[in-house]
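WARN retry 2 of 3 for item q-0093 after timeout on previous attempt; input resubmitted unchanged.
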Amino acid sequence: MERRFASALVLFAHPDDAEFACGGTIAKWTAAGCEVTYVVLTDGSAGSNEPGATREDMARLREDEQREAARILGVADVHFLGQVDGHLEVTPETRRLVCRMVRRFRPEVLVAPDPSRLWSGEGYINHWDHKQAGLLGLTAVMPDAPSRPMFPDLLDEGYEPYEVPNLYLMGPEEPDTFIDITDTFDRKLQALAAHASQGIERAIPWMTERAEGVAAQAGDGSRYAEAFKAFRFVDDES
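OK item q-0093 returned
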């Protein structure tokens, strides 16, 4: 049985990461009334290999594309933390920035990349920024967001400690939670198409095959699905 959430914070490294990993799930959640907030860690400025392309121009373009993709999926708000694409690090400062977002929005579920994923099969090496984004999600869950001694300046801003009740890691090698996105797969593709600078159309066949494969793994009769590793830190009676 799929859990329902009133609010979600989706933390990811680059514009388009969320749409690739869980766009169908986000569309399903927002349609059911979940208030979803995006937190994009980097500026996406390394998103082009074209000669003459500048990081400044690419960052502006990718922010616009991300906002449009979020609109298509019904995301309530998008926040850009502005770290340099390709150079994301887990530091006290980036931990504080993420902690601030988590304490501010107090989501019922935090969604972040699986930081343990180093590669997939024989054809994919996971991006450095994805792994760092996942680690920042984990450090927000413990110890940063719930611990009063962490980042006391946030207390001065009015951001009290907060214990995240649910954590969903996207793209795990060994998932335990599957979301049927058959009814929202088209919206996922529409949101991905908003990232026109990334040549998304070339990825459509691969995305379709992947979603079908995850559905087969789920074994629930769905046509398309997305997968997560889920943690629940509260009792079901809470």
